[in-house]
C-alpha cells in the first residue's frame, strides 16, 4: 500500500523545507516522465553525448552556424543540458528520429575528431588589408570561417600601426588551404585598390589630399548622434555592440524604439536608391570632409555615411577613393565614388545610432597595447555584430578632444554585463579573471552628460 506523501514526511520527521524540496522533485520527475512519454508517442529518441570542454566552441561554431548546420542536415534538435556540465566535458542531448539521431551523433563526433587533427597555420597580411578581411562588424572574416570550416583570428593590436598583421588559422589541411585562398583574394583586392590610390596621389594637382569644410551641405541640418544616457535608477541601458576596436574602445547601439527604426530606414533607403532616377551622383570637386551621403554596401543595401577623407584623381575620377564612416554602426572603409549618392534630408530625421564608448576599470596586461587574444575574447563575449542584448552600466562621461568630429558631446564610460552571465560580474572583470587584462582605477569622469556645458542627464528618450 502506497503511503500518502504527507504521512511519509511526518514519519521521517523531515522539516517543512524538505516538504517543498520533495514536492518539487516529484513534480520535476513527473514532468520528465511526461516528456519521455510524449517523445515515445512521436516515435522520437533522445541521446546524450559528452563533448570535451575544449571542443564545445568548435562544435557550436561562429555564431552557432556549425551546430545549426548539423541540426538542419539531420532534422534533429541539439541542446546542451543545463546544470550537467563537468570540468572536463559538457553534455549535449540530441532529439529526433532514431536514424537521424544516429547520423547527428556521427557528425558531432566527426567534428570533434577533426579538431584533434587540426593544425595551426600563420600568415602575415598587410595592415592596410585588415579592414577588407574583417568586413563590417566582422561579417567577412566570419563568412571565411563558415565557408572554410577553419577558425581564423587576426592580430588587431592598438597603438602604432605595423606594416603587417598576423593571421592565425586553425583547422585541417583542406580547411587551412581554403581559408588562405579566401584571405589572399581579399589582400589582392586591397592591393589593387591601393595601387589605384597611389597612382591617383602621384598624378593629382598640388591641392592637398583632403579638402576640409565645416560639414555637409549647409541646406541640410546634420542630425545628432543617439546618446547613451541612463533612464533607470541603476544607471543602466540595454545595448548591442556593433563594432570593436579594443576591449576599451568600441561602438554600441542603444535598444530603443529608434533602434528598430534604423532597420526600417535602411530598407526605405535601399528601396529609394534601387530606382535609377533617384540616384544623384556625388561631384568629386564638391565633396567635402564631414559631408553626409548615402553609400551602397556589398550586401546591396544603402547606409548613411560621413566622408572622412577624399583621395581624388583629376584625369580618372572613377578611380577616386573615399574614406567613409558608417554613422549607424561604427565601421570605416574605403569606397569608390560610384557607390556614393546625395542623401535627401528625409533620411536624416533619425539620429545616428553608433555610439562611441569606453570601457573603464581595465588596462592591458602589458604596456598600452591590447593583445589579439584579449580583443578576440572581448569580441566573442560581446557577440559583436550579432545583436545580442547586453547591459551597459554608465559610470560617467569623458570629454572629447576639440579635434573630434563630435566635439562637445562627451564619451560615455561604461561597464558591460551579459544578462545570461555570472550575476554582478562585468565583462571587464571577466577579462581580468582570464588574465587578459589588469584592473585599473576609475577616475577623472564627469557624472553627468553635459552637451556643450548643458547637463542633459535627466532627458528621457
From TrEMBL:
UniProt keyword Membrane, yes or no: no
Short name of any one Pfam family annotated for the protein: KH_1
Domain Tudor: 286-350
Gene Ontology MF: a single term: RNA binding
UniProt lineage: Eukaryota, Metazoa, Ecdysozoa, Arthropoda, Hexapoda
Organism: Apolygus lucorum
Highest rank taxon of the organism: Eukaryota
PROSITE patterns found in the cross-reference section: KH_TYPE_1 (PS50084), TUDOR (PS50304)
Name of the featured protein: Tudor domain-containing protein
InterPro entries: KH_dom, KH_dom_type_1, KH_dom_type_1_sf, SNase_OB-fold_sf, Tudor, Tudor_domain_containing
GO BP terms: P granule organization; piRNA processing; spermatogenesis
Keywords for this protein: RNA-binding
Cellular component terms (Gene Ontology): mitochondrion; P granule
Amino acid at each position: 500500500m502506497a503511503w500518502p506523501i504527507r504521512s511519509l514526511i511526518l514519519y521521517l520527521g523531515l522539516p517543512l523545507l524538505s516538504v517543498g524540496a520533495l514536492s518539487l522533485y516529484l513534480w520535476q520527475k513527473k514532468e520528465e516522465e511526461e516528456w519521455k512519454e510524449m517523445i515515445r508517442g512521436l516515435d522520437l529518441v533522445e541521446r546524450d553525448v559528452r563533448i570535451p570542454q575544449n571542443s564545445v566552441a568548435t562544435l557550436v561554431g561562429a555564431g552557432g552556424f556549425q551546430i545549426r548546420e548539423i541540426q538542419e542536415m539531420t532534422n534533429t534538435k541539439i541542446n546542451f543540458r543545463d546544470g550537467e556540465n563537468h570540468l572536463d566535458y559538457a553534455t549535449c542531448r540530441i532529439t529526433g528520429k532514431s536514424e537521424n539521431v544516429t547520423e547527428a551523433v556521427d557528425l558531432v563526433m566527426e567534428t570533434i575528431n577533426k579538431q584533434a587533427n587540426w593544425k595551426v597555420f600563420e600568415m602575415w597580411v598587410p595592415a592596410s588589408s585588415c579592414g577588407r578581411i574583417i568586413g563590417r562588424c566582422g561579417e567577412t572574416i566570419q563568412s571565411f570561417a563558415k565557408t572554410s570550416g577553419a577558425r581564423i583570428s587576426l592580430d588587431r593590436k592598438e597603438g602604432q600601426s605595423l606594416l603587417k598583421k598576423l593571421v592565425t588559422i586553425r583547422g585541417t589541411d583542406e580547411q587551412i588551404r581554403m581559408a588562405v585562398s579566401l584571405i589572399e583574394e581579399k589582400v589582392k583586392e586591397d592591393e589593387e585598390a591601393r595601387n589605384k590610390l597611389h597612382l591617383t596621389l602621384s598624378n593629382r594637382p598640388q591641392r592637398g589630399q583632403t579638402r576640409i569644410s565645416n560639414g555637409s551641405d549647409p541646406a541640410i541640418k546634420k542630425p545628432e548622434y543617439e546618446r547613451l544616457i541612463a533612464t533607470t535608477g541603476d544607471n543602466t541601458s540595454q545595448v548591442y555592440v556593433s563594432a570593436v576596436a579594443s576591449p576599451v574602445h568600441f561602438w554600441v547601439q542603444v535598444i530603443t524604439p529608434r533602434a528598430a527604426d534604423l532597420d526600417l530606414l535602411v530598407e526605405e533607403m535601399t528601396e529609394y536608391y534601387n530606382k535609377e532616377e533617384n540616384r544623384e551622383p556625388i561631384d568629386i570637386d564638391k565633396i567635402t570632409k564631414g559631408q553626409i551621403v548615402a553609400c551602397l554596401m556589398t550586401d546591396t543595401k544603402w547606409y548613411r555615411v560621413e566622408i572622412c577623407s577624399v583621395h581624388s584623381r583629376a584625369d580618372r575620377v572613377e578611380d577616386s577613393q573615399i574614406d567613409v564612416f558608417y554613422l549607424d554602426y561604427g565601421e570605416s572603409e574605403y569606397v569608390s565614388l560610384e557607390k556614393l549618392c546625395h542623401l535627401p534630408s528625409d533620411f536624416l530625421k533619425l539620429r545616428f545610432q553608433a555610439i562611441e564608448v569606453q570601457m573603464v576599470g581595465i588596462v592591458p596586461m602589458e604596456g598600452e597595447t591590447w593583445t589579439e587574444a584579449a580583443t578576440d575574447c572581448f569580441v566573442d563575449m560581446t557577440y559583436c555584430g550579432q545583436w545580442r542584448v547586453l547591459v551597459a552600466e554608465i559610470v560617467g562621461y569623458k570629454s572629447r578632444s576639440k579635434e573630434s568630429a563630435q566635439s562637445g558631446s562627451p564619451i560615455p564610460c561604461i561597464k558591460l554585463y551579459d544578462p545570461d552571465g555570472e550575476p554582478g560580474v562585468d565583462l571587464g572583470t571577466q577579462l581580468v579573471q582570464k588574465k587578459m587584462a589588469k584592473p585599473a582605477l576609475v577616475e577623472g569622469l564627469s557624472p553627468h552628460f553635459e552637451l556643450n556645458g548643458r547637463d542633459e542627464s535627466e532627458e528621457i528618450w
